[in-house]
């Protein structure tokens, strides 16, 4: 069973190296990309979540990962949930 039309997607990601309370440039750059896309971004102590329509989230996830890697990330863990 598929989804008709645009659906909401939640993306949760953790970017390493990880230092609690002190997000590095790799994390800050990824968050800035998501915020500039107009998505609802929630920064938590161990990861970041964003939510929005499927088209925007899917387009933004690639840019988030690219920004994280370009700024020193060694690992990006990502989970998508289709609502």
What does this structure look like?
The chain has 83 residues and is an alpha+beta fold. The chain has one domain: Alpha-Beta Plaits (2-Layer Sandwich), CATH 3.30.70.930. It is 35% helix and 33% strand. The protein has 2 helices and 4 strands. It has helices spanning 25-36, 54-70, and strands at residues 8-16, 40-43, 48-53, 75-82. It has a 4-stranded antiparallel beta sheet, covered by helices on one side. Strand 2 (40-43) and strand 3 (48-53) form a beta hairpin. Helix 1 packs antiparallel against helix 2. The radius of gyration is 13 Å and the shape is elongated. It starts with 7 loop residues before the first strand and ends with a strand.
| CATH architectural designation | 2-Layer Sandwich
Strand content: 25-35%
Main β-sheet: number of strands, strand sense, barrel status?
4 strands, antiparallel
- Backbone structural class: alpha+beta
- From the spread of the alpha carbons, the general shape counts as elongated
- Strand and helix order: EHEEHE
**Count of folded domains:** 1
Q: Count the E strands.
A: 4
Helix share, percent: 25-40%
């Amino acid at each position: 069973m598929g989804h008709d039309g645009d659906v909401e997607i939640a993306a949760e990601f953790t970017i390493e190296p990880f230092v609690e309370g002190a997000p590095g440039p790799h994390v800050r750059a990824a968050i800035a990309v998501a915020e500039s896309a107009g998505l609802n971004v929630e920064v938590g102590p161990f990861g970041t979540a964003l939510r929005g329509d499927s088209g925007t989230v899917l387009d933004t996830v690639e840019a988030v990962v690219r920004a994280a890697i370009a700024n020193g990330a060694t690992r990006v863990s990502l989970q998508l949930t289709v609502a």
